[in-house]
Design brief:
Layout: H1 3-18, E1 23-28, H2 34-46, E2 50-53, H3 56-63, E3 80-84, H4 90-101, E4 106-112, E5 115-117, H5 119-125, H6 131-163
Antiparallel strand pairs: 1-3, 1-4, 2-3, 4-5
Helix pairs in contact: 1-3
Length: about 160
């Protein structure tokens, strides 16, 4: 079999992974122990993030003509690709959190909802809470004034009942 025929299924796999993805982050995993790598993969899986090591040329070929093509400059050295189709900040958040304990893990760059971010930008993206957390905070801030109004109205009603 020719080399090209061997590479096509891998390129197709990466292209399918990137198709419809909310975000993709590339990292340098050099220096991680097997135990650290296993822990990282488990955390990413729990967050619904696909994580796999690919050859840079394969990622380049798969990303060609997509919004992820901008990752090309970061594709040097050993590269692992973390992709999420649902939570745009999940790959950056989980990887950055894990990098605090595993200093060998280096976030290179990423694309989040069509926008390219370098290493510093991905660190900032990593600080954004998940969609569920943000919705919870929004709901809490909406409920707070309503609860306060209900409490005041209840106190007024009780004071009127006490006068009668």
């Amino acid at each position: 079999m020719a080399k090209v025929e061997l590479k096509q299924p891998i390129v197709k796999e990466i292209a399918e992974l990137l198709d419809g993805a909310a975000s993709a982050v590339v990292v340098d995993y050099r220096g991680l122990t097997v135990e650290q790598d296993t822990q990282l993969r488990k955390k990413l899986r729990e967050a619904g993030v696909s994580y796999k090591v690919y050859k840079n040329t394969m990622i380049r070929l798969a990303a060609k003509g997509t919004e992820f093509e901008v990752l090309d400059p970061a594709l040097e050295g050993p590269t692992a690709l973390a992709v999420s189709k649902t939570d745009a900040t999940a790959p950056a958040r989980v990887l950055a959190e894990f990098a605090k304990t595993a200093d060998k893990l280096e976030l290179k760059a990423g694309v989040v909802e069509g926008t390219y971010y370098d290493q510093k930008g991905i660190q900032v993206i990593a600080t954004i809470p998940s969609r569920e957390v943000l919705l919870g905070k929004l709901l809490g801030s909406i409920q707070s004034p309503i609860t306060n109004i209900a409490r005041v109205l209840n106190q007024i009603a009780e004071s009127k009942a006490g006068e009668a």
